Amino acid sequence: MPKRTFNRLDDDKKERVMRAAIGEFQAHGFEKAKIEVIAQNAGVAKGSIYQYFDDKKELFIYSVTWALEYFMKVIDRQTPLKDMDVYDYFLSGSRERFKLLKREPLLVAFSMDVVSGKYGSLAKEVNSELNRIGEEYELKLIANGRKRGTIRDDLDDKTLLLFFQGVTEKFTTEIMEKAEGFKYEPTEEQYCEMESLMRKMVSLLKQGMGR
Amino acid sequence: MPKRTFNRLDDDKKERVMRAAIGEFQAHGFEKAKIEVIAQNAGVAKGSIYQYFDDKKELFIYSVTWALEYFMKVIDRQTPLKDMDVYDYFLSGSRERFKLLKREPLLVAFSMDVVSGKYGSLAKEVNSELNRIGEEYELKLIANGRKRGTIRDDLDDKTLLLFFQGVTEKFTTEIMEKAEGFKYEPTEEQYCEMESLMRKMVSLLKQGMGR
DNA sequence: ATATAATATGACCCATGGGTCATATTATAT
DNA sequence: ATATAATATGACCCATGGGTCATATTATAT
Q1: How far B7 CA sits from the closest chain A CA (Å)?
Q2: Which of A20, A121, B121, B147 has the most neighbouring CB atoms within 10 Å?
Q3: A residues 119-178 near B, CB within 8 Å?
């Protein structure tokens, strides 16, 4: 957690510092990220960073937390329909992520790196907590589908979850990679391509998991 | 590429150096890996490392190449049956990887990290080359299945490939994570669990991709 | 207006570890 | 046996960048 001094800063300055930090970590990774550069990009002196955080590691961990909280706020806004099925969850989740990607490419890219384990043990705690939450939710969706009879019942939930996660993660990575090429406003055509790929993936998921 | 001096070393010493390097990079990542530690573990002086390689980066890149070539040798030994289908490819590939994991946990772990992009841009070239080769082969398998009529023909190859890769990669990661717990000799039970999960994944793949 | 507390600043300190180099050791040639 | 070339060694150099601290500036209280 940051020091008291940081919390007393006005929101604008806090945000400048966090975005500078996230940008630097995202671009160069934890080790190569320079506090001096973060300070410059935030428009503060290097010494100030150490008035806000104990050390580089704390700044990094708070960067992860900050990005996460940002998403929490955004995602909370669109209440997920209860009793959605896994496929709609995948579709709406992907569309949301895509919209966010356009608005906040840096935060999305950073979060993806965190989730993908690029920062190794540094983000472990936040990371496994996130996975736990996601898994719990997805398992619930699977259980629902099973009850409703839309999901095959010859396979256990853990296996279905793994399958579902594998497909969705690969799809997300693919979209992210394509998005790098968009820089940063995707054309209508690119948007359609994404939609199309998404539907095809759902078809594969449905046929694979369904009965 | 290493310097002439390194190539003239006897095979044993070469291997000691490479394994020490791979162990250190695997354990701590590129930045935190210490040349001094690599030298110690290889049983040579730090200065010697610089008689063999220009710098740390070159040592790293050669470590990747070395691990890769090791696998090439092993994999070449079991000639892949021509005209295999994607499912058999997945099954035999997974079993091979599992056997290797027991014999060479370090090399497998290191290679997985390389492939998963943990070293970022450092291993980019080798990495994308590897992906290209894998993709090419898998696309061929998919095309075969399509001809043979075992694969649905309402979806394009690229989509099927993405689906296949997503599932197989997730499965591989899962097995690797479990294997960490094996340390290092899996019990018969654990082996069966892996076999079972593998078959279930194939079932999902088949039902998803089949017609 | 003045005192006091909080914050900002950037010159500076210093541990770290990549890389060098003079010298010792060993291998090879004649 | 002796000269020469190749290799090994580890003390040393030094750039880098995380973190500190004395001082300046600014905010808050009375």
Answers
A1: 32
A2: A20
A3: 120, 152, 154-156, 159-160, 162-163, 165-171, 174
**Is residue B187 domain-shared with residue B136, that is, in the same domain?**
yes
With 80 as the cut, is the pLDDT of residue A65 above it? yes
Q: Using the Cα atoms of residue B30, residue B111, residue B160 and residue B191 in order, give the sign of their dihedral.
A: negative
Token pair in block for residue A34: 């320079």
Strand, coil or helix: B117:
coil
pLDDT tens digits, B23-35: 999 999 999 999 9
* CA–C1' B155–C2 (A): 80
Model confidence pLDDT, tens digit, residues B66-102: 999 999 888 776 656 667 899 999 999 999 898 898 8
- Asked if residue B101 and residue B114 are part of one domain, the reply reads yes
Cβ of A55 near strand D (under 7 Å)? The reply is: yes
Instruction: Report the half-sphere exposure of A89 (CA within 13 A, side-chain side).
Output: 20
Range of the domain at A61: 1-77
CATH of the domain at A169: 1.10.357
> Minimal Cα–Cα distance from B88 to chain A, Å?
18
Question: Whole-model pTM?
Answer: 0.93
Same domain, yes or no, for A69 and A133? no
